[in-house]
Sequence to fold (352 residues):
Amino acid sequence: MGKITSYVSRTVFMAIALTLLVFLALDFIFGLISQLENVNEHYTAYEAFRYMLFTMPRRLYDYIPYTCLIGCLAGLGLLASSSELVIIRAAGVSVKRIAWMALRPALVFILLATIVGEFVAPYTEQMADNRRHFLRYNATQKAPQNMWNREGNEFMYVNAVLPNGVVYGLTRYKFNDQHQLQSASFSKQATYQDNYWQEEEISITYLDKDSVRTEVIPSRRWETNLTPTLFNILVVSPEDISMRNLHYYIDYLHKQNLASSTYSLAFWKKTLQPLTTAALVLVAISFIFGPLRSVTMGQRIFTGVVLGIGFMLLQRLLGPSSLVFGFPPLIAVMIPITLCVVLGVYLLDRAR
Fold:
């Protein structure tokens, strides 16, 4: 039994690994081509190549659930095409046992995705985005992304953020309790120093009741709850933030009485991604013993791609729907997973 378990697990593992390698290679090539379209004097071809390298951990994390799905279909499908699954079943191995043999290598990739998604991808993605935004800011003095934040009656906008506690192009708008604009300021640069920010080269416009006046000062101190960590969170999209930082930022938003649904949705997606991957693998295993028992390899891979796209579209539909209609993000994340588990268990039960 040990040799059978090792053989099935090894076959599925190699199929998943090969599928992941193909996905990453294609994504890297097309992503690099896309980045080269934005090359200029500051953002060179080398910087574009470096950006793609730094974003590869995030891409690996995103692809693992779907490569596990297609890899399991391909690996078990190969065994089914050569009648090896029939021989294994004839040897008295149950469907549940074979399902566990196929799930074991997927667990390795689930563990890999968890480690990369929590400890590697958030930091490499942040470094990549920080570097790209900084280079583009130097070239045009206007970053392509708009990073807004609110704290009490003050709104702030940042052009570029460096990971060492330096921000460029800081604009602050202060409102009174009647939502009337009191002042607007622009600082060329702000540096974090011992629980406060030191702004430099500031231009301030005051809107009084009957007049508007402008003041230019070399520097000033800015007391705020915003830390470099929080600013760095603003650089990347919620899906690219670690679970720890998502929880940290959600808590900050709650303290500021701000909506946190978008970040809560990203938090639950990342938290439940291991369950997502396991559910997709379960569906793949059930398809091999059910509808895809005697079809060609091409049909199995096509089915896996269609199923993966359908799952992704359902997630992307339910996620924004939870934000619009106000139901908990956890429910939006759990619905596709539950559907996959129910379908997989039903098909496996029929295959007994």
